[in-house]
Amino acid sequence: MTKHTLVGLQVMAALTLLLGIRGYAAAAQPEPPRDGAHDFDFLVGDWKAHLRRLPDRLTGSTTWIEYDGISRHKKILDSNANFEEFEVNGREKGQHIKGQTLRLYNPVSHQWSIYLLDVDKGTLDNPPVVGEFSGHHGEFYDQEDYKGRAILVRYAWSDISPKSAHMEQSFSADGGKTWEVNWICDLSR
């Protein structure tokens, strides 16, 4: 074997090893987290809202109250945040719900924080529900006190299209083993 052939084989072996290591490193890289910054863009605009609400929660009640009204969503300062104004009326006198929601996207955690506001009372509910979307389904959770006991809260968004969306709120008093749906909102336009 000549000196040039030996050097050529050594260079080829080094290149093969280097390319193999680079290929392995590229294959070993985890996928970057999904950017969900525009997950709630479908909500921007005005919607008709139909709400079913279970007023007596975590008691085994099956008595629901139905409401109809509006849900208006706006992007805030051309950012990934949005603000909702929600107002519905039930069929009986005094059945009126007015609320506001602030949704903020965290580009580091790739998750949304959803805060309920009461501008009449000047309050912001803490903690927010926090979560993310996977495809056209979003789940958001928090833990809070309800009537003196710790519960889990879940918001679930589904059936999302340009003309409709479905949102449910559920409570769990047993650490997430079982859930009671107590708020069902169907949006349409």
Average pLDDT score: 88
SS-derived structural category:
mainly beta
CATH-wise, what's the superfamily? Calycin beta-barrel core domain
Share in helix: 10-25%
Q: Examine the secondary-structure arrangement and name the CATH architecture.
A: Beta Barrel
Binned strand content: over 45%
Low-confidence runs of at least 5 consecutive residues: none
- Put simply, the count of helices is 1
**Gross geometry:** globular
In angstroms, what is the radius of gyration? 25 Å
Give the total of domains. 1
Biggest sheet, strands in spatial order?
A: 1-2-3-4-5-7-8-9-10-11
* SSE run: HEEEEEEEEEEE
**Which fold name is given in CATH as the topology?**
Lipocalin
Structure overview:
There is one protein chain. By secondary structure, the protein is mostly beta strands. The chain has a single domain (41-188), classed as Lipocalin, CATH 2.40.128.20. 14% of the residues lie in helices and 50% in strands. It has one helix at residues 3-28, and strands at 45-53, 65-75, 82-90, 96-106, 111-118, 123-124, 129-134, 137-146, 149-158, 164-172, 180-188. Strands 1-2-3-4-5-7-8-9-10-11 form a ten-stranded antiparallel beta barrel.
Key traits:
189 residues; globular; ten-stranded antiparallel β-barrel
Put the structure in a nutshell.
With 189 residues, the chain is mainly β.
Topology:
Blueprint: H1 3-28, E1 45-53, E2 65-75, E3 82-90, E4 96-106, E5 111-118, E6 123-124, E7 129-134, E8 137-146, E9 149-158, E10 164-172, E11 180-188
Antiparallel strand pairs: 1-2, 1-11, 2-3, 3-4, 4-5, 5-6, 5-7, 7-8, 8-9, 9-10, 10-11
